[in-house]
What we know:
Blueprint: H1 3-26, E1 34-38, H2 44-52, E2 57-60, H3 63-72, E3 79-82, H4 91-97, E4 98-104, H5 107-113, E5 120-125, H6 142-150, E6 155-161, H7 170-187, E7 193-195, H8 202-207, E8 212-215, H9 217-220
Parallel strand pairs: 1-2, 1-8, 2-3, 3-4, 4-5, 5-6, 6-7
The structure holds pyridoxal-5'-phosphate.
Amino acid sequence: MSDGAEALAARLDRVRAGIADASAEAGRDPAAITTIVVTKFHPASLVRQLYDLGVRDFGENRHQDAAPKAAELGEPGLRWHFVGQLQSKKARQVRQYASVIHSVDRESLVDALAGPFAPVDVFLQVDLSGEPGRGGAAPEQLESLAQRVLDTHGLHLLGLMAVAPLGEEPRSAFARVRRASEQLQALDPGATALSMGMSGDYREAILEGATHLRIGTAITGNRPAGG
Ligand SMILES: *Cc1c(COP(=O)(O)O)cnc(C)c1O
């Protein structure tokens, strides 16, 4: 292995150990937690290295970067998670390679993803910052957005996704998502998944019930320029 490959394997091991520790602390089974490695701004070669290290779930946040990687990498069992803000006019294209879309945040996007296709798994993204333009639906809009998904053919609701805002303890932010998830489950008992936790706060997310972690730099190292 080259130095770069060894360092990558070491970072992946460190994060896996951190996930195991946090799961033990929470009394949870780490096998029930999906770790998505966010490879945005990195080349397809890094995705292939991670695949060879056993990673199967990869996250991207821009269609124009994700599409060529998805076209290049057809490894068996490799799944793409779309985690960035999604324009409605790109929705059909993203749906062609993404197994999971984490950023559904408005009814017009639900409508753009609809169709007579095999259902795509989706998370509703909750905005915890209260700042417009950052992606995510306001907490008070979640119920009507969830109802829209349930009434629409071609989407399967997994649960809620969130990014901890600056200026708030991540654990208290994630606790808010967990409570919103309990309300959502009154509408759809199957929508139990929680996509939350990044490089700096995955421990707190696991303690609050995260089922899908989205981890970039702690595994990939620093992103190339532009990231
Ligand atoms: C980039 C990104 C991540 C990963 O961030 P890191 O801090 O590098 O772990 C997670 N979620 C979303 C939505 C992202 O855009």
